[in-house]
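User: Teach me something about this protein's shape.
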Amino acid sequence: MRNFFISLLLCFTTLPTVAQKTITLDQVKQAGLHIVEITTVNNEEPEGTIVESPLFPGSYNMLYKNKVPCKIVISKDGQTLYDSDEYIKKTSGATIRINGNTTAYYSHPLNMPYKIKLEKAADLLCRGNDSKYKDKEWRLIKDAVSLNTMIGFKVSQLLDLEWTPAYIPCNVIINGDYRGCYLLMETMKQNESCRINCDKHTGYIIEKDPYWWKETRYFSSNWYKDDNVYRWTWKYPDSDEVNEEQETYIKQYIVSMEESLSNGNYESYIDIMSFAKWILLHDIIGTRDSWGSNMFMKKYDNTDNSQLQLPCVWDFDSSYDITPGSFSLLHTQENEYFYALFNSSNRVFATTYITLWNDKKKEIVNKLYDFLNEYPNSDEAKALDISRALYNERFDYHYSTVNEDIQLIYNWLQNHIDLLDQNIQLIEKSTNISINKTGINNTHITYYNLNGMKQYKPKKKNLNILKNANGKTIKVFIK
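Assistant: First, the predicted structure itself:
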């Protein structure tokens, strides 16, 4: 597959080094966060190759070029918590490579997101001696410079999604050079002990992936086959371990699920509560980017006893980036599954979503505000502020303080929650119908969009809210 795009590769196979200010190891130690020290064999750098998107010429992504063998040591307050030992294949050490799509492309060459694979499973978050947390695969993501990911995972825990990735903020040093503050975290993976639980032999984890063209194996489903933007890629089993029988099974199941969204029989194919939790989370945090909000779908096994589930959330780059009170774009875009679910004649999903919000909103809002009020005074936040200052100095960045982040998010949520609640209740009071514009009696009728804003005329090929003179509201799709 990648050979097909070889003509699109640009000549950035070796990432340039850029002279920046030096941060000493003593400065990093004094910051107070965990320190992840990575020493590569022969001081080799993880490198990437820039590739132009075949779908959108002029937009670029990055492929990793090399997996670099290394040793990893994790410490805090002068105490070594983990030491991988020197790299010996299948015995000790690890490999590190560049990870990410557009994030990697727009990153400084010495400040990339990374994926770590240990030769021997361990718990890099150092949570004691409990072996259940051990795994070989981990991530270093650049999300310690905002609170989006931390708060997104906080909401995930409050909604009780199946799995919320664990993480620690940390400072990263590669070959003696300070590379910035990161989140060291669990990566999305099948692991019945502490990550995604599906049957080791017959289970599936797949991703609705806009970057499918970077993968060696993928498949399409009827829902997305015409737009060419999304395909399904493999998380479990690994793409090089999937056989034709496995792919045929899950592809047909996805196709049947998509058909059920149209005919209202979706209860047989999806775990309704997990879908409701997933989209409610994105509505609460105001996700703008429907592309980047990774949708990982799980099926526990290949029997009729399991359904498709959305077990986790990932990627919060566009949180708090919509008009307060609005639903996330994942909720309202017509090409998304949730649009069909909310507007189905089968109201089970919509009712589940509304009930979930009504049952959990007080707890979620109160605990979110508690977190926002308390976190700036924590030792972790103080260490993070010092680390952000080092990060800014090292790379000439201008990231804000924790308290400044808190204030922006707090203000946004204050404007968002009550309006969101009103719009969610409006779903409950509405009835879904599909109607031609010519079939509407326009006398004493007022139109609103899904965000409650008055419309002077209804939008064609869109869902509108119609309010009659008697105050009754219905949803109408204008053809």
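Now, about its shape. Residues 430-479 form one domain. The CA atoms of residues 2 and 214 lie 7 Å apart. If you'd like, I can walk through any region in more detail.
User: That's plenty for now, thanks!
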